User: Fold these one by one.
Assistant:
Number 1:
Amino acid sequence: MSGTAPTRKRLPRAEREARMLDAADRVFGEKGFQAAPMEEIAEASGITKALLYQYFGSKEGLYAACVERGRAEMFADIEAALAAVAPGPQRLRVFAERYFDNLEAHRGSWWLLYGEAPAAAVNAMRERNAEAIARALGGGLAPGVRPPDADELAVLAHALVGAGEQLGRWWIARPEVAKSAVVEHFLTIAGGAIGAVVSAAGRRPQRARRR
């Protein structure tokens, strides 16, 4: 029998990071950001507290990473659904339906609408969400309607990020409201915003609209 101690298998970085985030999800979900100790997250993950700080920098960084992972999975699901939809107005409806599907499926999840993530992280996530909405809107207007230029598309996308978040917060607190009704509310808001931008662009002199 050899006297050499068995070597401990080193986890790949991605698996180690996933374990830490899974454990943090559970502890933050149970206790909230303020009351969740890093020691408990480390113990739940089976990975040292030193490595938590090495990977995420701080408790705030770990929390933001958990929120980002949840939001990224949501938007990956939305974009996968949009990939199967041809350019046209239906893309915005599919975006809205899949967005509220995700809110419904994860109702009660602390990360759903950013939780207690720091402002800088939330702003970065909102920027990425706006980019996803801009892709959904690209080519998504009615036939014959001049598509928005880059600035108009950015304005629309950021406005709809805000509208979607606030409508989502309102709906999450009112489970008795049908999802189909919320989707139609969002589409009404989006349609009004798109119509206003297109109308305003149409009234501007042609020269001013050129890039």
Number 2:
Amino acid sequence: MTAGAERRSAARPVKQSRRRAREAAVQMLYQWEVGRDPILEVMRIFWTHGPSASQAMPEELRAFATSLAGGVAAAVADIDPMITEAAENWRIERMNVMDRLILRLAIYEFLHEPATPAKVVINEALELARTFSTDDSVRFINGILDAVRRTLQRA
């Protein structure tokens, strides 16, 4: 095995783990959105009794997931107008709940996770859409996020 191949295979679990953290964040945001419970309560229940309670997740990734979910919930008033502006002829409340949450999460990362390249943020959002939504949603989310990325001039 070459040194480059070893680095790629060593980096892969971290990437997939961050995806697991993003999946956990979306699940918490879904509980928050649908259940209308305070995000802190949702996070407590999620880590105690949710699907991730039985699956070991390193503390660093739990912190990342919690930071994303809490950050999105706190910044939703700033994020939603960006979605509305990019989604011509779509009211945000008429969007599929999962699509709306994935968009919010990705835009939050655009704004608050500058070390993560925009291409990675979009790709991760599309993977979340493939996991939690539909093929049509993948195209919809891709279009909205690309428009927001251009507006933010995010590379």
